[in-house]
Each structure stands twice: as structure tokens, then as C-alpha cells.
Design goal:
alpha+beta; 3 strands
């Protein structure tokens, strides 16, 4: 499972668990997504660095313009995940993950 697939699945699971009228993702897939995210985190922190930036998740409507200067400032202090939500289909597209 790729990082993007894992994050999208976990977003869907989180939406389902908060009451969205969508099918629950398969429990085995949820476990695989969690394993993927944990493994990637361990790889990124293998240098012994314990510095962890908080994650900033911004959910935006499709076709929303993003100010690059503001985004670059945010990246200095946060891991930035920007999601574009297609309101009609309830699907997400992750624009960028920075670590």
C-alpha cells in the first residue's frame, strides 16, 4: 500500500467513524494502512531524530487557490497535508505531503 493510499483510506475510515453515510472500510485494509503509516514514520525517523512537527491538514474545495508563500511558511513548522474535497462525490485528493 502506498502512503497516499494509506492516508486516503484512513481519512475515509475517520469520516465513517464520525458518522458519514459511507461504507466502512475493510478492517484488514485499515490495519494495513496503519502499518504503512507507522513503517514510513519509522523510516523517516531512523536517524535518531526525535523532532516531530505537528501535522496540519487543510481540507479545501476543489479548484481552491493556495498562496504559495503562505504554504511555504506553514511548512517551516508543520507537516502539511492539503486535501481537495469533491463535494459531489465525497472523494479526496491529497495535493501534497511534506515531511
Amino acid at each position: 500500500m502506498t502512503e497516499k493510499e494509506a492516508i486516503l483510506l484512513l481519512i475515509t475510515y475517520n469520516d465513517w467513524s464520525r458518522g458519514d453515510e459511507i461504507p466502512m472500510p475493510e478492517p484488514k485494509q485499515i490495519g494495513n494502512a496503519i502499518d504503512t503509516v507507522i513503517q514510513l514514520w519509522k523510516q523517516r525517523n531512523a536517524d535518531g531524530s526525535k523532532t516531530i512537527k505537528p501535522i496540519l491538514v487543510a481540507k479545501l474545495r476543489l479548484n481552491t487557490k493556495i498562496d504559495e508563500e503562505v504554504l511555504n511558511l506553514l511548512k517551516q513548522d508543520y507537516h502539511v497535508i492539503i486535501e481537495f474535497e469533491d463535494i459531489e462525490s465525497s472523494k479526496y485528493e491529497i495535493l501534497e505531503c511534506s515531511y
